[in-house]
Amino acid sequence: MKTLTLADARSVIAAAEAKAEEIGQPMNIAVVDAGGNLVAHVRMDGAWIGSVDISINKAWTSRAFDITTKHLGENSQPGQDFYGILASNNGKVMIFAGGIPLTRDGQVVGGVGVSGGIGEQDQAVAEAAAASL
Predict the structure, then answer these.
(1) Which of 22, 62, 81, 125 lies 20 to 30 Å (CA to CA) from residue 68?
(2) pLDDT tens column, 68-102
(3) Are 28 and 115 a contacting pair, CB within 8 Å?
(4) At 46, is the pLDDT very low, low, confident or very high (cuts 50, 70, 90)?
(5) What are the domain boundaries of the chain?
(6) Read out DSSP for 93-133?
(7) CATH of 6-132, one of 3.30.420.40, 2.60.120.10, 3.40.50.300, 3.30.450.150
(8) What average pLDDT does the structure give for the chain?
């Protein structure tokens, strides 16, 4: 199974930090490997401590289901296919923007999770991070 290295994770985090600085929003940024295990996490100066756990769980969720947390959230509303999914996995599943599976050569090799701003900001930083890989 292909997975991420620490060097990959550092590169992804650096891209996320650059985007967060560009938009002026300090973030928590987490990267997990193909097995959903945390490889690296950064809490930028001034980022909310309450978002540490959220960023890690967004990264895990995006890898666990190989879907962005934004799309999972859209599909987990009442009447949708994944309604109730956030109650699974001991409440670890995140269903709002900021988690994106990381791919290499068309294969999921990990996930990135970003938390610290509004959903649009989290998503923008996560997208910049994912695009860097």
Answers:
(1) 22
(2) 999 999 999 999 999 999 999 999 999 999 999 99
(3) yes
(4) very high
(5) 6-132
(6) ---SSSEEEEEETTEEEEEEEEESS-HHHHHHHHHHHHHH-
(7) 3.30.450.150
(8) 96
